[in-house]
Inverse folding.
């Protein structure tokens, strides 16, 4: 049987690196991944047998083994739960399947999340576990989007033998888990102020405006010229209608050059009010003081 590449990398490289980093006496003290638990809650759909079967099939494709159906242990009226009824599905992966799943998760599934910034470090506990949620289970390549009746989320818990947050974080970082990078306290994490997709869409519109600017101006001159015959002016109007509408100046959104923020933007400076105040407070705008805001 072929050994998973992540497991091979862990044995040959990661163990030695972590042993040196934490000054451990032997390699058996180095933290390792014990198991991975996937949990999917079904909510109101738990009463439908067909939906439960579809979810079991999807989870089986993702994990490589059949999940178990979880039941409510207690009746709670506020949550509309009854003891013994279906709550969701759960699967625990160990050994080679576990390493194969982590490899697919890190290198294929997580990069497919829209506007993915990284995993939060708040998911660590003091017992060597790391938990995080996924909003769309279709990020896994094993799932056929055409056959999915509804997009569902799931919780993933990675259980390790680490004794604290530092050792667990070092292990997962060595396995190439994409965590949110630490931002310098002096600066600001401007990326949270606007979606990357929205900024890129606006940049495409700016390029289109530059590309069709002369053509639009020429056609508008023909349309407004009342000396020309109606047929020629009407033909120009039809040509103008065929040009992409995103090539019009009015389609461009004024955004801050630093933050990408669309609100409170000074047109002449091309930056937002927040960015202007931050630059002024650091003394980067000569002659501007707090009283002049």
């Amino acid at each position: 049987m072929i050994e998973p590449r992540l497991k091979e990398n862990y044995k040959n490289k990661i163990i030695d690196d972590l042993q040196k980093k934490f000054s451990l006496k032997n390699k058996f003290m180095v933290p390792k991944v014990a198991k991975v638990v996937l949990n999917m809650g079904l909510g109101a759909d738990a009463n439908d047998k067909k939906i439960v079967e579809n979810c079991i099939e999807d989870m089986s494709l993702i994990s490589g083994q059949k999940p178990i159906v979880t039941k409510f242990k207690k009746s709670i009226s506020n949550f509309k739960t009854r003891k013994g009824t279906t709550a969701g599905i759960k699967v625990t992966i160990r050994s080679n399947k576990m390493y194969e799943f982590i490899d697919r998760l890190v290198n294929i599934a997580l990069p497919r999340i829209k506007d993915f910034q990284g995993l939060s470090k708040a998911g660590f506990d003091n017992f060597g576990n790391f938990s995080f949620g996924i909003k769309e289970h279709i990020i896994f390549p094993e799932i056929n989007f055409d056959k999915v009746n509804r997009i569902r989320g799931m919780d993933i818990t990675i259980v390790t033998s680490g004794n604290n947050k530092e050792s667990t974080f070092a292990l997962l970082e060595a396995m190439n888990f994409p965590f949110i990078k630490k931002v310098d306290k002096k600066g600001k994490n401007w990326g949270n102020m606007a979606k990357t997709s929205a900024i890129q869409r606006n940049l495409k519109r700016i390029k289109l405006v530059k590309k069709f600017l002369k053509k639009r101006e020429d056609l508008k001159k023909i349309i407004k010229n009342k000396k020309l015959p109606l047929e020629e002016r009407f033909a120009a109007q039809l040509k103008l209608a065929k040009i992409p509408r995103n090539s019009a100046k009015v389609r461009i959104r004024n955004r801050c050059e630093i933050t990408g923020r669309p609100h409170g933007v000074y047109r002449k400076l091309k930056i937002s009010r927040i960015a202007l105040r931050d630059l002024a407070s650091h003394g980067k705008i000569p002659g501007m003081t707090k009283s002049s805001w």
